[in-house]
Amino acid sequence: MSDITLHPDRSREELDRLADLAQDVIRRARAAGASQAEVAASIDTGLSVNVRLGEVETVEHTRDRGFGLTVYFGQRKGSASTADLNPDSIQATLDQACAIARFTEEDPAAGLADASLMATEFPDLDLWHPWAIDTAGAIVLGQRIEDAGRAHAGISNSDGAGVQMGESLSVYANSHGFVGRERGTRHSISLSLIAGDEAGMQRDYWYDSVRDAAKFMDAKALGDKAAERTLARLGARSLSTRQCPVLFAPELARGLVGHLVSAVSGGALYRRSSFLVDHAGKPVMPPWMQIVERPLLCGGQASGAFDAEGVATRDSALVEDGVLARYVLGSYSARKLGLATTGNAGGIHNLVVTPGSSDGEASDFAGMLARLGTGLLVTELMGQGVNTTTGDYSRGASGFWVENGAIAFPVEEITIAANLRDMFAGIVAVGSDVDPRSHILTGSILLDRMTVAGE
């Protein structure tokens, strides 16, 4: 099958076409009586290949289009969308949005973000790296990854290797005259393996996710990593119920930061369904903790010069010296709270958690195990037992019991529980072993104490 990569020389033309379409629809919406209007249009292209036991399981080519329109008649709002960019479908979408707005109740918080906040500078953030891989090449790469993992003694089966290529073009425009164009690529490779012994079967995996395929970890290294993780789980046992220090591996530590973001996001706050309501300006973490949003990181997983409303993004502290510096708001939630937008419509951009500890030192992963001393290293979480209204946290977990700073044996079938308020306040250290595969950039996080429930 042929290479479906969207050629970089065509991407700018596609963006111009989307921008022209968006501006034309906004003009037509104004002509139909809308006082304000905004359009989000996108084209996503991808290739996904899965290989298992050396054979091709699935091959999927995608080219998805999206077009969403929101109109405001005063403070009455109507939204409609389509995946078809032909003129009749666009007109039907416009008619539908206007009809909805005319019959919707007024909402005092409705409307575009203030015109004075629109982005005016659009630096190249190094997000566009098309990967010229075709189906045959993706299959070969998947087979190489799987072969590397299956070559390890003790690996008995495979859940398969995956290779994904993705390109995204998007335009946001509104009746302030703002037009923002974005193009980005995101590619991934992964492998899931199975090992077994007399105690039973164990499964684990590894993956890599990058903007630029040239920065992937080596195929053999990924296969080796997946196999090592899987084999390390053999002989897992449960634990008796206890309280102990808990170390979250970097790929799980970012989830803890994500719970903080959820709790300080506008929707949860104006509905008063967060345990951190009215906490701006108050301590929520130890006084050495720093978390900064950095939207303009070159090559970042969530970099962008503007948010989903066209508001310019900028570096901004979220937690400063342990104090919650601000909330995470778009213009709607900001108006509901009587505050100003923080440029976070559509989500957060590249949160950086500064490595450190109460003693001022930062540690790599080995150093974090030493800090843990004797306690639990968590490498997998199961279930959705997190309540951001109350802060209650209870999730199934597996990982390793650590004694005197060294891994002693794997553990499974346990539950870890605490309250997020206590967990955040009880952070002992943040490692320098940062996982770059996410928009939340953090190393491992050590907590002073959680309840571990097992046998």
UniProtKB/TrEMBL annotation:
Against InterPro entries, the record matches this protein to: Metalloprtase-TldD/E_C, Metalloprtase-TldD/E_cen_dom, Metalloprtase-TldD/E_N, PmbA, TldD/PmbA_N, TldD/PmbA_sf
User: What keywords were assigned to this record?
Assistant: Hydrolase, Metalloprotease, Protease
The enzyme's main class, written as a single word, is: hydrolase
- Indicate yes or no for the key word Protease: yes
Q: What are its E.C. numbers? A: 3.4.24.-
Tell me where in this chain the Metalloprotease TldD/E central domain is found.
129-234
Instruction: Give yes or no: UniProt keyword Hydrolase.
Output: yes
Ranges for domain Metalloprotease TldD/E N-terminal come to 37-101
Annotated GO MF terms = metallopeptidase activity
User: What is the superkingdom listed in this entry's lineage?
Assistant: Bacteria
| PANTHER family noted in UniProt | METALLOPROTEASE PMBA (PTHR43421)
> Which family is it part of?
Belongs to the peptidase U62 family.
Q: What is the protein name stated in its UniProt record? A: Metalloprotease PmbA
**Source organism:** Dyella lutea
